Every structure is written in structure tokens, then in C-alpha cells.
Amino acid sequence: MASQIETIGRTDSQPLVSIVVLNYNGAGWLPKCFGTIKTQTILGQIETIMVDNNSTDDSVAVAQRLLADFPLARIVRNDSNLGFCDGNNSGARAATGRYLFFLNNDTWMEPECMEQLVQGTEKLGAVAATPYVLNYPDSSFQDFGFYGFDLFGLPSPSKPEAVSRNIFIPGGCSYLIRTDIFNLVGRFDSDFFIYSDDADLAWRLTLAGHHAAGIFEAKLHHRGAAGVNPAGGIETVEFRTTDKKRFLTNRNALLTILKNGQHLLLLLVIPQIALLFLESLVGCVILRRRSFLRASFWSPIADCWRMRGKIREQRRAAKQFRQRSDFAMLQFFRWKLNRWFEIKRLFHFGLPRVDAK
């Protein structure tokens, strides 16, 4: 893996926050994203890092133009598509801020977002946080992170709130974390590539005895799934996924429990496998394509088995910083099911379109 780093602006002091914007062929999203970083009330304390995962569009040229007059910015150019995890890790390695803020390019922030996010995080004694996430074109609610895990071991979704609060998992589109904690618990797991990486990182920081928060006063707008579901521009107009996304999502959900469960919570793998089988079987029947069953069920399980050596290594690594047992982690158990959001999308958009790639 090789990266080229271009620095823009001053380097004479440590910034409070390093905003890491990961990009792959997302030139069209960058003007709004960077434009609203520039309006932040604490811009002078922000380091902006654009990580480009070997885009084939003009993303780098667009970023160079937009960041030219920022007080401190860097462009990290990777020589291949490293995915969400290693792409963001490469940005973190170039960062110098006390906090890291991993920000999707299909987002925009209201002017006080960063100031309120850091202040609110410190007020609640948290080491990680998410803003209050609204939909991209308006101020309707999208999410507020995840409050815990359900009986399948999957993240239990949030609900509209009017106050800041402790949460379990900050959402990956806008994930603030203290740099020292990010390094302590092992950064994003590069084996995940993309999907469920936010949950895995949150499990580890929680095992280490820390907690995350949702900061209501910090407002951010997010399109969501712009890569796999591009139709509609700034608005989501269909329920769409791919075989590859289902494989990665389902495999990584299993890996999260296998890596981070101590003993009792490893039992969550059983109902999770049952759920994945049922969903995959139904999808196979609806799509009339057996390859979907393989991609979304058999392949994730087979890959977890293939990775059993790495899982053992990661479990040993977690012992070095573990402060919470499985019994202590039960405080984050919630009855609200992860799949409730997808059920609502079914009613809104109808059956999903699943691309075989």
C-alpha cells in the first residue's frame, strides 16, 4: 500500500480536529461537503484531510481547488481502492488533530456542527460521538447513531431526540473519536473493507471502558448509500443493494460478535445466522437467483471460517484493553430490532433492487 500526501496551509500548531473525508469517484459531492467545512465556526482549529481511493474522475483536481485557501489541509492519494476501513486509516495516519472526525463525502454540516460536537462530547465525558444526522435535502430525521445491540447482535437503531445522550455506536458517516483511543483499540479493521466497521470500532472502545455520545446540538445532513444507490441525486428514490454489499454486511456483522464477544455474547451468533439464512432464502425466492443465497449466507459463513486465525489474534488483542465483561455489555441490549429500518424502507420503496455484482 502506497500513499502520496500533499499538505496545504500552515503546520505550526496541533489542530483540535482532523476531518477525514474519504472519497472514491465522488467529485460531485465535494463542493458542498468542503464548502460547509469552510463555514465552521472553529475552522482555524480544523485540519481537513481528503483521502482519495484512486478515483478515476477529477476528484483530486476538484479537492486541490476547493482546499487551496483552507488554513490547514492535506490530500492523501492512495494507489488503489482501500475501501472505507484502510482508506480512513490512511487519513488517520496523516492526521495531527486531538480528535478524528470520519466524514462521508455525501454530507454537509451546519456552521456550528463541529464546535457543538466537540463541546458536547467533552461535556458528556465521551471519547466518541456522532452529530444529529438529518436527510441531505431537508431537516427530516435520518439517525442518531445506534443505542445498543438487539437479540441478533445487530445494532439497535436510534429515534428522533431533542437532547444529547449517551449511545452505543456513532454512525460511520460522521464518526468523531479521540485520536489516542482510535489508536489504542486498533483503528478500523482493514479485513472489513466496508460496512459494519462503525459497530466493530464502537464495540472495542466500549470494551475498553469508554463510551460514545450523540450530540443533538450538532447538525449534519447525509444523503446515504450514494455509491450503491445513486439514483435520485441528493434524494433516495429506491431501495437498492448488491450481492457484494450483502456479503460484506452479513460477514462483518458476524465478525463483530466473533471478535468482541467474550463468552456469553458469542451465543448471539446463533440467532444471527438463523436470521441471515431466513433473509437470504426469502431473497433467493423473490429474485429467483440461487447466487444470492450463496453471496448473502454461505459465503459470509465460509469467509468467517477462513478468517478464524485472524479472529483468534484479534480476540487476544482485545484482552489487552478489555475493561468490560460480557455481563457489563448487557447494559446495551435493546429490544428494538435492527431490521425495523429495512422494513420501513420496504413499505416506502417496495421490494429492493439487488444487483448481482
Summarize the structure.
39% of the residues lie in helices and 22% in strands. It has 357 residues and is of the alpha/beta class. The protein folds into two domains: 3-222, Spore Coat Polysaccharide Biosynthesis Protein SpsA, Chain A, CATH 3.90.550.10; 240-355, no CATH class.
Low-confidence stretches: none
Structural class: alpha/beta
- CATH superfamily caption of the largest domain: Spore Coat Polysaccharide Biosynthesis Protein SpsA, Chain A
Gross geometry: globular
How many discrete structural domains?
A: 2
CATH-defined architecture of the largest domain? Alpha-Beta Complex
- Total E-strand runs: 15
Distance between the termini: 25 Å
Helical run tally: 12
Average of per-residue pLDDT values? 93
Helices and strands, in N-to-C order?
A: EEHEHEHEEHEEEEEEHHEEHHHHHHE
- CATH class category name of the largest domain: Alpha Beta
Helix share, percent: 25-40%
In the CATH hierarchy, the third-tier topology of the largest domain is known as Spore Coat Polysaccharide Biosynthesis Protein SpsA, Chain A
Radius of gyration: 20 Å
Portion in strands: 15-25%
Mind describing the biggest β-sheet?
A: 11 strands, mixed
